[in-house]
Amino acid sequence: MTAVDEVRRTIERLRREVCDLHAELTRYGLVVWTAGNVSARVPGEDALVIKPSGVAYDALTPAAIVVTDLHGNLLDGDLSPSSDTAAHAYVYRHRPDVNGIVHTHSTYATAWAARGEPIPCTLTMIADEFGGEIPVGPFALIGDDSIGRGIVETLAQSRSDAVLMRNHGVFAVGASAKAAVKAAVMCEDVARTVHISRQIGEPVPIAPEDVDRLYARYKNIYGQQAGERELR
Amino acid sequence: MTAVDEVRRTIERLRREVCDLHAELTRYGLVVWTAGNVSARVPGEDALVIKPSGVAYDALTPAAIVVTDLHGNLLDGDLSPSSDTAAHAYVYRHRPDVNGIVHTHSTYATAWAARGEPIPCTLTMIADEFGGEIPVGPFALIGDDSIGRGIVETLAQSRSDAVLMRNHGVFAVGASAKAAVKAAVMCEDVARTVHISRQIGEPVPIAPEDVDRLYARYKNIYGQQAGERELR
Amino acid sequence: MTAVDEVRRTIERLRREVCDLHAELTRYGLVVWTAGNVSARVPGEDALVIKPSGVAYDALTPAAIVVTDLHGNLLDGDLSPSSDTAAHAYVYRHRPDVNGIVHTHSTYATAWAARGEPIPCTLTMIADEFGGEIPVGPFALIGDDSIGRGIVETLAQSRSDAVLMRNHGVFAVGASAKAAVKAAVMCEDVARTVHISRQIGEPVPIAPEDVDRLYARYKNIYGQQAGERELR
Amino acid sequence: MTAVDEVRRTIERLRREVCDLHAELTRYGLVVWTAGNVSARVPGEDALVIKPSGVAYDALTPAAIVVTDLHGNLLDGDLSPSSDTAAHAYVYRHRPDVNGIVHTHSTYATAWAARGEPIPCTLTMIADEFGGEIPVGPFALIGDDSIGRGIVETLAQSRSDAVLMRNHGVFAVGASAKAAVKAAVMCEDVARTVHISRQIGEPVPIAPEDVDRLYARYKNIYGQQAGERELR
Fold it and tell me: Of the residues D20, D46, D69, D128, which is catalytic?
């Protein structure tokens, strides 16, 4: 098998994976209509695969998933790439450890984002998954690098794999597209639980040293597949 | 094919489309029992197709969808038209650019409507889809033109395709029945997110010039199907 | 066909209907586990059919539905009748116009019941369906007639087909089991919308004369099946 | 059939049961991703069956369920046991009447847990199922006996079969795995209803003597299967 064939096969596999992972977004109610997307880096190539723009989740097929370079220019596919492709591409250029990205406007996380408030670390699940509060990124208009830069700069100051972009929604990253989807699912889950807790009182923060212990343990020993956790 | 045959075929197609689009209302939880309806204008004719009154969504078939003139008088169909037909018909008479209308009592949007409060533009998704706040229309009794007039007059002062009718529910319009359903789905989604954000603080408004930029971009370049966005 | 055969057939039909209607309770999320039930009067007989006690909705079959007299004594069936049978039976004895009853602990309606607060008539849907606020009945222990009496006495002072039993849940009645299920579904829907509206402000009440107009119109002309509305 | 064969058969049956019961956790929305687990004691043996760590609910098969001793050491299975196994094992060692345990981070119950607030007994369903308020257990780190000890000590001072572990989530116990799942489902249901009731006022408490009457009746006569209730 030539190197070219191998890249082709990798892209086919990633198209299937990324297509299938969108079903997790609808399963957990993170998206409505066409408002959310998953991408994956093509390993060893300056390329990514991503959802096309404006296509319903039900109608999504592996063949509809498009391939772009790391500046969002279409390399392969019949449809236009997601209008969020530039933001994904910026993150892949500046975070070589990131191989998957998810964007949603999931309800509870976006509600925190609309107030510009980080989600405080008041649940063991937040400590486990995010190693502290889930941070807020800047307000940024679509059309240049400002969303991508906002994501990268905010995540650089945090152990979290998810960021709440102000007035906008969630971006989640991972060592794989599946890991990024997990972070997006967990982000909405804890956003909801802490929101509900705060509606009628104050959730108790977890002491920073306990957050560190929980995060270290979870990062090292949870789950069967070491690979899934390797980003942290 | 005669002109009469062509109209007949168009009506058959619209009956199927409108029947199918009701499944989006149940999928996104916008309706319970029989409390919501979709209509489409029959292009070039003084006619519309609409859900019959009091029929369960599961039991809806294309053949059950009825045809009325633009004053709500039955032209074809075995069942009575939706009791909201007069309001749909009024809008089609006064808005030649509108080809589809949806009415729901979706929970969060109706909760804003019960307080008579517009949904403030605090999310990029609201700026994209609605070009500003989602406005409130008057309280109006069913039985004459007051609901239809309230919809048309309120939308005339706004870029929004959705209106919250006071103490009642949502009417959404579009260049097609599908575009109207999209507006209804998005209206409930942002009504929910902003409501939740406001429960424990104040969501930050988006500056009017940024709203304009977001709306202009979205209107012009989002999605694959230019036709779907042509209303705006 | 003898009169006995006819009653037998009627009971078989009602067992199927009542069995099927429980699927509406799960579809609309009104019940968890086994905590809710539907019954129907056997017309012309001192008998009712009702869900057996402690049986999962998935496992429910027409044959599992039991028949009791109007004091809750088992007439036919292999399982014990619902522990709420006495309350259903009391209502059938005292309300000859009622042919179907539903009991749920649906979340939002029960939340109002836990505060002992009626649901104010702030939506056209409440005016249409319930003719005014949805009233609260007394706190009552299971085991004697107090629940049934509380239902009947509270409904006697109201146009509503649903009552919020204090600290407990909802009872809804109708001219048929299906009409009662509709009232239970609508009760939860408006309980949720008005609750959400009240979380961040005050929903505007509808003027009593408008409530009367809406209720009169809906009672007389909505829907295809006159029979379904005949109770009101 | 030898005694060894009998134990093998019992384990096969429990693996199927425990595998299937996880579907109730997803059905009622108590878990996301892999964050929740069910176990059952192997009767007469120092052993339990439990979900493996980090496996998706969809992918769960009876063969994937693992067997450990009552200190969490793997006896049979290809995968690592749930990271919560030590807590389950501690409870089985100290509560011989408990044969099933469920752990979730279900939203509303965990929201109470994040504030460290018990769920007050303001619904007849709470009195029936839990015999009083649902108590809060201590904050405890994973890795030693502190979670298990926290569960056992908290439940010892209560009639409740569920405990809200501070900043963490719910543990529910039962005479069978199914009874524990029921307690977990009911715990989330009442956590949600009472939370919603408290959002806009104060739910009225039920008098302690009425709580006792409701609990006594429910424990003794509800349902068809006496065995399911025998723990209480």
Answer: D128
Beta bridge partners of D134: D119
- Catalytic one of A103, A161, A189, A215: A103
Q: What residues in chain A have per-residue pLDDT under 70?
A: 221-232
Mean pLDDT of B77-92: 97
Question: Token digits for B189?
Answer: 């989604």
- End-to-end CA gap in chain A: 34
Please, which pLDDT band fits residue B74 given cuts at 50, 70 and 90? Answer: very high
**Three-state DSSP class for residue A150:** helix
Round to whole Å and give the CA distance between A75 and C159.
Answer: 66
Interface residue A146 vs chain B (CB under 8 A): no
Out of B196, B210, B221, name the one closest to residue A111 (CB).
B196
Residue C142: per-residue pLDDT = 87
- B3-220 has CATH 3.40.225.10 classification: yes
Burial of C124 (0-12, 13-18, 19+ CB in 10 A): buried
DSSP state of A162: E
Instruction: Provide the residue ranges of all domains of chain D, joining segments of one domain with +.
Output: 3-220
Tell me if residue D105 is catalytic. yes
For position A64, what pLDDT does the model report? 97
Residue A5 makes CB contacts below 8 A (sequence gap 6+) with none
* Residue whose C-alpha is closest to residue A34's, from B24, D98, D76, B213: B24
| Beta pairing, strands D169-174 & D66-69 | unpaired
d(CA C170, CA C188): 9
Contact D47, D18 (CB under 8 A): no
Indicate the residue of A197, A221, A225 with minimum beta-carbon distance to D114. A197
Name the closest residue on chain B to residue C121, using Cα atoms: B167
Nearest CB to D225 within list C54, C83, C107: C54
- B116 has a chain C CB within 8 A of its CB: yes
* ipTM associated with this complex: 0.93
Q: What's the CA gap between B90 and C119, in Å, rounded?
A: 33
Residue with tokens 């979340």: C107
Residue type, B22: H
Q: What is each CA distance from D132 to A164, D178, D207, D211, D221, in whole angstroms?
A: 40, 21, 10, 7, 18
Going by their DSSP bridges, the two strands A162-165 and A136-137 should be labelled as parallel
Find where tokens 């069942």 sit: B79
Residue C58: Cβ-neighbour burial (10 angstroms; 0-12, 13-18, 19+): exposed
- Per DSSP, the residues of B113-130 read HHHT--B---SHHHHHHH
CA dihedral sign of residues A130, A136, A142, A147: negative
Average pLDDT, chain B: 94
Is C71 labeled as catalytic in the residue annotation? no
* Cα nearest neighbour of B225 on chain A: A54
Which of D27, D133, D193 best probes binding to C when mutated, by most C CB atoms within 10 angstroms? D193
Q: Does B52 touch chain C (CB under 8 A)?
A: yes
